[in-house]
Amino acid sequence: MAEVEDQERKSSEDFTDDSEEEESEEEPKLKYERLSNGVTEILQKDAASCMTVHDKFLALGTHFGKVFLLDIQGNVTQKFEISSVKINQVSLDESGENVGICSEDGKVQVFGLYTREGFHENFDCPIKVVALHPQFSKSNYKQFVTGGSKLLLYERNWLNRWKTSVLHEGEGTISNIQWRANLIAWANNVGVKIYDISTKQRITNVLRDDVTLRPDMYPCSLCWKDNQTLIVGWGKSIKMCAVKERNPTELRDLPSRYVEIVSAFETEFFISGLAPLADQLVTLYFVKENAKQLEEEFRARPRLDIIQPLAESCEEISSDALSVRNFQDNECRDYRLEHSEGESLFYIISPKDIVVAKERDQDDHIDWLLDKKKYEEALMAAEISFKNIKRHDVQKIGMAYINHLVEKGDYDAAARKCQKVLGKNMELWENEVYRFKTIGQLKAISQYLPRGDLRLRPAIYEMILHEFLKTDYEGFATLIREWPGELYNNMAIVQAVGDQLKKDPTHRTLLTTLAELYTYDQRYDRALEIYLRLRHKDVYQLIHKHNLFSSIEEKIVLLMDFDKEKAVDMLLDNEDKISTDRVVEELRDRPELLHVYLHKLFKRDHHKGQRYHERQIGLYAEYDRPNLLPFLRDSTHCPLEKALEICQERNFVEETVFLLSRMGNCRRALQMIMEELGDVDKAIDFAKEQDDSELWEDLISYSIDKPPFITGLLNNIGTHVDPILLIHRIKEGMEIPNLRDSLVKILQDYNLQILLREGCKKILVADSLSLLQKMHRTQMRGVRVDDENICESCHGTILPSDMAQPFSVVVFHCRHMFHKECLPSSGTIPAVQFCNICSAKKRGPGSGILDMKK
Questions:
Q1: 779 Cβ partners below 8 Å, 6+ apart?
Q2: What tens digit of pLDDT does each residue of 697-748 get?
């Protein structure tokens, strides 16, 4: 609730009623200030009786018969001595160039503010109201109306004389007139009427609801919302009346317009004034309240409410109680509410006070949010409307928000807001950093410090790093990783970390951070040494990024102990920087690592490490036997005798068999398979691979007294050796497992071979016939011979220029052509002649002759 104090001008906060403000967290819709300057002096000696508002100035009438023209700030610009008694009404046209004044002693004056020419008349009864035509200055008729006991219309006739017309009388004193466009609305003791001056018809009569109220004590309030909507307030009743055009078919003797009441509702208090505000309504209430201890009513402060009219009720939007001067002495008739349509200003007029209410702007909204400690909303509102706010600064609001968060102890949120609020103001940034240091919260602000184009002094960053180094190693390491090395003095931080490591020499986080600092300082050797000691995963990235291969030549063992796979891949990818010989030399005392390196080298290229293949045999035998046999198969550079010796020493049968077969000793290899492995299938595969009849004979001889071996041979020998040779050598009476199945398989294999041969024969015959027919058809085709063809021997035109002379041409099936005389004599090649060009192939495509003669 707003409260108006005895000061010349105060903001709406100064008018607030504490008792009700504490209960409501809702932001007020209006702000208030007292109209002061010249008005203060006037009301000290006189009392306001009426006031009219124009967009450019105000016109104030007093109880002592004076009219003052005021500017918007309340300064007096003109003064008119009209009467010695109360001014009842001051009316202005839309241009503000003409004024109409009426007083309690019956005086009516209508004149131009700049000409003083116009109408001056004294009546024998009080004139309560006067209203000028809105277009008075432009109209030729200069119309205006007055209201006392009658409603009189004055207008000039063509002789420039004033003509008077009685529009209405007989229903008591007329207390209010409002003229809008062509419609005049007035109120008397009975109700409210509307007169259409264009058709000279009265179009409605709205009766007042509460006839028990004295019209002179509780006057009617009228205001036009627009050219078709009249708002009527009387007692505790409000009606909204819409003027509408009547359907032409319904006219007859009725007015062309009619009025429909679109909203009607009761209010809690007596209405002293009305004014439209968009689709809402501003109401000024006269309030009477009962004393708690005394059984009598007393006059309370007037209220200014904003309401939303509904069809049969209203919704209160805001409500402010106004403590205007001497409100205890005022009656309902002493208050008036005037408004300026252009700027949404509302003037509350009482005898000893005039208060201006206006819609709150964005600055006022921010003031209220700050007062309620809603700093985040205030900052957001300021950022959105930064072009429209005048009294506030976005950064100052942001600083207030940061201060508030710090006071609450929400240091992380305060630090986060610094990024947005402080922007590029380095001085503010440094002040905030020192403040956070004072309260022991440097950690909170560290992650939000500027680190891009805008940078603070290096001392600021160093101060924070030292703070972390003392209390939080992990946080210190995070800052070193995230902050560019240019933000601070790297050497100073390295020294500080070194001092800290003296207390804890093995702390992994500190050592890792020191390595990163060495990297920023381009002391890569020192960083590499730490990474290797820690076996840090970034060591390989460091070597690649900064080309530190010369530095790792003596550290290859360390690298491979850390991660063999990555180390070997790196060494092989960079053979031009670290030679294979150098790596082998470094790994000579670590054969297990040497094997990993040489194995991957061999996989990449079988020939690159050929000089080490002999050494690899022993390495494979010692550390990786599964890959020994593939190595022996793929390598063409390893000495077979050395390999055989090693394999025999270690009793590697499969490898020995391979080496023996490769060295040509297949019979010994087969013997080892049969005797030491006892694997007939492997022996058969070996014999098939070698495809040697003597091996098959040895295999059969070895297997002849071993029934399981005979079964294996019977199942697999059919396609390589005649099974009869084996069957004839089987001793009579020997039991052979699955003999029947083996014999059936042999027969099936034989039948399959026969079928395959017959099938192949059929295909061959069919293909031969097809090709023969194709050749026959080709050779039966005619061959075109014309002037473009040449002899392949003499290269002359094949046909003579004179076709009448006899000639002889030989055309071969290969399409080569010769003059017959250009060919070798038939005696050279008896029986059949062949194309010289194609004669390299016996009876090739050039065979055969087409002989043309004429």
A1: 813, 848
A2: 666 666 666 666 666 666 666 555 656 655 656 666 566 676 666 667 767 7
Distance CA 305, CA 316 (A): 7
Which positions ≥6 away from 625 have C-beta within 8 Å?
652
- The C-alpha atoms of residue 683 and residue 657 are separated, in whole angstroms, by 11
Indicate the pTM of the whole model. Answer: 0.58
Helix, strand, coil percentages (3-state) for the chain, rounded to 5, are 40, 25, 35
Tokens of 193: 């009427």
Confidence of residue 10 (pLDDT cuts 50, 70, 90): very low
699 φ, ψ (degrees, to nearest 5)? -65, -40
Beta pairing partners, 33: 356
How far apart, in whole angstroms, are the C-alpha atoms of residue 804 and residue 854?
A: 9
* C-beta pairs of 343-348 under 8 Å, 24+ apart in sequence: 343/55, 344/277, 345/53, 346/30, 346/275, 346/282, 346/304, 347/35, 347/51, 347/53, 347/58, 348/273, 348/284, 348/302, 348/304, 348/322, 348/324
3-state secondary structure of 109: strand
Strands 118-122 and 129-132: unpaired
Rounded CA separation 781/402 (Å): 104
Phi-psi region of 172 (alpha: psi -120 to 50; beta: other; left: phi over 0): left
What 8-state DSSP symbol labels residue 676? I
The full 3-state SS of 203-263, as one line of letters, equals EEEEECCCCCCCCCCCCCEEEEEECCEEEEEECCEEEEEEEEECCHHHCCCCCCEEEEEEE
The single residue listed with the structure tokens 């001889």 is 701
Using CA atoms, how far apart are residues 816 and 613, in angstroms rounded to an integer?
61
Residue 675 DSSP symbol: I
Residue partners of 723: CB distance under 8 A and separation at least 6: 714, 717, 746
pLDDT tens-digit series, residues 162-187: 899 999 999 999 999 999 999 999 99
Q: How far apart are CA 566 and CA 99, in angstroms?
A: 99
**Spatial distance between the Cα atoms of 241 and 219, rounded to a whole number of angstroms:** 18
Residue 200 and residue 206: Cα distance in Å, rounded? 18
Select from 601, 534, 614 the least CA-distant residue to 574: 601
Q: Which among 223, 259, 261 has a CA at the least distance from the CA of 240?
A: 261
DSSP structure class, residue 673:
I
Residues 6+ apart with CB under 8 A from 142: 110, 133, 136, 154, 155, 156
How far apart CA 772 and CA 768 sit, in angstroms, is 6
Q: Give the contacts of 180 (CB within 8 A, at least 6 positions apart).
A: 134, 224, 227, 230
Side-chain half-sphere CA neighbours of 599 within 13 A: 22
- Token output for 438: 């004072």
Q: What is the tens place of the pLDDT at every residue in 47-88?
A: 999 999 998 999 999 999 999 999 999 999 999 999 999 999
Alpha carbons 317 and 339: distance in angstroms, whole number: 19
Check residues 538 and 141 and name the one with the higher pLDDT.
141
Helix or strand holding residue 282 (H, E):
strand 280-286
Torsion-angle region of 848 (φ positive above 0: left; ψ -120 to 50: alpha; else: beta): left
Phi, psi of 158 (to 5 degrees): -70, -15
